[in-house]
Specification:
By secondary structure, the chain is of the alpha/beta class. The strands form two sheets. Strands 5-4-6-1-7-8-9 form a seven-stranded mixed β-sheet, sandwiched between helices. It is 40% helix and 15% strand.
Length: 308
């Protein structure tokens, strides 16, 4: 009697031990994070006035803390636990700090604890104009490659989160051509992902590296596409460089992203054509891998008890 029960308990223990690895293989709610430095995150990054060397203060607010239900696609296309700085292996030529991605994901899970696993796909690179994101460019191809890789083992592309345009404020020509280029970029992304209604949340600039900020802002807010929402970062606090959002501002921006995304959802995550065949809801997996063996164990113990 003791020996069979021992083996049954061993089965349950083994089922429990595979849970973390198996959970990562379940369907994820995937979000593309793209744009330039304020999406990559410069919160807490300050230039030393004497040496000119930029450093990150290393402060991670609680709203941006790691969460077992928040993963990120690393530069080698594997899923890892997401943590700040989220873009450190993507925007590797710059010093990265806090961005909006972690705050966004934590706010979504805070509002809906049953939302499931969130998979963040960092793609932003600082100092990039919209022309560097046109279809066929390196950044565009890299974003598509990472996005396609993100759904290979289960997942649904839920939205593109986009924050870019500061570099296009430097010349009037770039600023005036921005609207047409940005709209084409959004349409190209949807077309290449075969998701014509893919939700896109873009940020209207809080700052810029040139004098034509208002032209770019007007272009951003003037694009009229279905399932496109624009959140306004104007007025959020900036670092001493008057270009990059502070850590507190990035936390606020993450909340704005989350609130806007959740308004898309009548009762559950948007179903995008870009998904794998793996089940999305990890709670069903937990029932199957943990609870079912436990019930089997109980039934076998009762059976063995009756025949002894």
């Amino acid at each position: 009697m003791v020996l069979p029960i021992f083996f049954l308990l061993l089965i349950v223990t083994q089922a429990w031990s595979v849970r973390p690895q198996q959970l990562q293989q379940q369907g994820k709610n995937i979000f593309i994070l793209a744009g330039q430095s304020n999406m990559a995150g410069r919160g807490g990054v300050v230039n030393n006035t004497i040496t000119g060397i930029a450093t990150w203060d290393g402060i991670v607010p609680p709203q941006c803390s790691p969460n077992p239900s928040i993963l990120k696609l690393s530069t080698n296309l594997t899923w890892v636990l997401a943590q700040e700085p989220l873009h450190s292996d993507i925007d590797f030529n710059k010093i990265n700090g806090v961005g909006p991605g972690m705050a966004f994901a934590n706010y979504v899970l805070g509002k809906d604890p049953n939302f499931g696993i969130i998979g963040l796909v960092p793609c932003a690179v600082g100092g990039t104009k919209i022309s560097l994101w046109e279809k066929g460019t390196f950044l565009y191809k890299q974003m598509m490659k990472r996005t396609q890789a993100s759904v290979q083992n289960g997942g649904t592309i839920q939205a593109l989160l986009w924050y870019q345009g500061e570099s296009d404020t430097e010349s009037q020509e770039d600023a005036k051509s921005y609207k047409a280029k940005l709209q084409k970029f959004f349409l190209d992304v949807r077309d290449d992902l075969q998701s014509p209604m893919l939700p896109i949340i873009q940020v209207a600039l809080a700052s810029g590296s040139g004098p034509f900020i208002e032209i770019v802002r007007e272009a951003q807010m003037g694009i009229d596409l279905m399932n496109l929402r624009t959140i306004d970062a104007k007025g959020l606090p900036l670092e001493p460089d008057n270009l990059h959002l502070t850590t507190a501002a990035q936390v606020q921006l993450g909340k704005m992203f989350a609130d806007t995304f959740l308004k898309f959802l009548p009762s559950g995550p948007i179903v995008s054509p870009i998904r794998s065949s793996a089940p999305r809801n990890s709670s069903n997996f937990v029932v199957n891998i943990l609870i079912a063996p436990l019930f089997l164990c109980i039934r076998m113990i009762l059976f063995l008890t009756n025949i002894v």
